[in-house]
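job 3f2a | input accepted
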Amino acid sequence: MSEPRVTLAAVAGAHGIGGEVRLKLFAEGVESLGRQSSVEVGGRPLTVQSLRAGGGGAIARFAGIGDRNAAEALRGQAVTVPRSSLPPLAEGEYYHSDLIGLPCVSEAGAKLGTVVGVENFGAGDILEIEKPDGKRAMLPFRAGVADLHDQRIVADPVFLA
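job 3f2a | predicted structure (161 res):
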């Protein structure tokens, strides 16, 4: 099985005529992507030649992408890196991608669902939980409501009603 990949950005389109692309960033900033010398774009390995902030996201140049047509062909493609290439985390920190797929259980261990998404609208992380009946609910990821313990989310079922 191959190593899990994490999506750091998506190609929004070409920038200029020289092969640069505009990126929509999903990471905290351009620095997160800047640590990477190589990435996959739409499953294709590419070397990052340059990267800078711009247009509310980032502007990148990849080796082998030399003109606007080649850059435009990347539009809509995910920019991914291996999970192992991300910086180590301090105690209590997590990457959103590490939460997706975790089981959500009650304090007593009853299955409440599975984490299928993580959002942050500015007031903290919100977990999207798919319940056993297929319905989805949003759950604030904060102490006493939803806690991360031993690779599972322990949640108060009242918040999933």
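job 3f2a | The chain has a mean pLDDT of 91.
job 3f2a | closed
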